[in-house]
Amino acid sequence: MKQVFLNSVLGHAALSARDRFDLLRALLCNPEAVGSLVNDQIAFSLVTKLCRSGKVFVDVGAHIGSVISEVHRSDKRVDIVAIEAIPEKADRLRWKFPFARIHQCALGESRGEVSFFIHNLRSGYSSLSRPSGKDDSIREIVTPMDTLDNLVSSLPVDVIKIDVEGAELGVVRGGKQVLSESRPVVMFESAPSEWNSLGYTKEALWEQLGELEYLIFVPNRLAHDGESLSLQCFLDSHVYPRRTTNYFAVPRERRIEVRDRARLIRGVRA
Question: Helix (H, G, I), strand (E, B), or coil: what is residue 158?
Fold first, then answer.
C-alpha cells in the first residue's frame, strides 16, 4: 500500500500521520522506546533535506523509495542515484521514479556476483548476511555486487544514505574514494544485533569512518554543538533502550556547515 501512494500528496500525508501514530503508541505502550523512535524520525527529516541543490544524493538500499520520494519532493534540483539489490524492487523504482538513476545490485567492498537473502515477509530486512538458521520465508538469489566508488566516484555526491542490514561497513570500504574526495554527509543504519555472517562489527565501522576523518552523531545532536560520539558512546547507544537506529557521519571540516543546515531544517535557533 505504501508503494502505491508514494510520491503523492496523499502518500506524504499518510507517512506523516503514521509517524505521529507510532510516536503516540510508543508513549502509551513503551515509553522507553520513544527516544529511539524520535531520533529515527528526525533522521528521516534531516537526510531527505540536507543535500545541496545541484548535487547528488545516493540512496543505498532504496527498498520501496520512501527516501527517494521525500528528497525529490524537498528539492527537485537534487540528482538522485539509488541502489537496490532486489530485482523486482529495482524495476518498481525505475517505473515509479523515472527522474532517478537506479542500479540493481548489492554494494560492497568489491565487484562480482554474490548471494543475497530476501525476506519474503519483510523485504526491508533482506541482506547480504546469511541467516543463522533455516527459515522458509527467506529465499536466496544471486545478484551483481558493485562498489560505491565504481558507480558514483565521478559525481558531485553530497549526501549518502546507507541502509543495508548489517553490510554498511562493506559499502564504506568500497566507497573510500567517494568519501575522501567528495566528502559527503553519510546517514547509516546500525542495529543492535551482534551476529553478522559478513564478519563486520560496530567497532570496525566506527574506526573506518574515523580513519576517513568523519565524526559520528545521533540525529538529535546534528543541529547542536555537542561532541561527536566516541567509540564507547557509539557502542553504548546500541544497548537497550537504544538512542537511535540511524547515525550521521559528517566530514570533520564540514561540521559547522552541516550543523547550520540542520538548524535551518529543524527550525533550531543558535
Answer: strand
Residues in the chain where the model's pLDDT stays below 70: 1-17, 19, 21, 23, 26-27, 194
Per residue in 39-92, pLDDT tens?
Answer: 999 999 999 999 999 999 999 999 999 999 999 999 999 999 999 999 999 999
Tell me the DSSP string of 194-258.
Answer: ---TT---HHHHHHHHHHTTEEEE-GGGTTS-PPPPPHHHHHHTTSSSPS-SEEEEEEGGGHHHH
Domain architecture of the chain: domains with CATH: 2-266 (3.40.50.150)
Separation of alpha carbons 120 and 124, rounded Å? 9
DSSP 267: T
- Model pTM? 0.91
